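Incident review: delayed structure delivery

Summary: a single-chain prediction request sat in the queue longer than the usual turnaround. Root cause was a stuck worker, restarted by the on-call engineer. No data loss occurred. The affected request and its eventual output are reproduced below so the record is complete for anyone auditing the incident later.

Affected input:
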Amino acid sequence: MWGLGIVCEGYISMGVLADVEIEECLADGTLVIAPFDQTCLSGAGYDLRLADQTVIPSGQSRLVATLERVGLSDELVGSLHIRSTLARAGIVASLALVDPGFRGQLTILLFNTSKQPFAMAKNDRFLQLVLHRLGVKARRPYAGKYQDSQGVVDSRG
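Output delivered after worker restart:
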């Protein structure tokens, strides 16, 4: 059921999870997305929504949080991509991997490069979470300072 993988130095690297695999991971508990909205699920990812409304003035940035709490097992990793609708409006994001073992809401820095303020409403879809299955379980799953994050979390440097 997992499809073909790429073998590298004895490990099997799997591709991007399809919607049916994401649903299987949700059902078996290796993935948590809460609250989950079926309409946010696409063929190869899940659209994360904004936790609170915000306005980003021209030339400025804002830290925002996802509405969803995400939980990844030690065999999944997530990559984040800004939705193209926002990119077309001049919004860019500072994005990182969602490490195996991470639990919590995600804090994202959005920057407005346009000449106009950009308003976003609570529940607006703004990021796509793409999931990948690791070839083996991570030996060092995430246990850092942002574990179990809630809301917007400033740098804990």
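Verification: The longest helix spans residues 19-28.
Action items: add queue-age alerting; document worker restart procedure.
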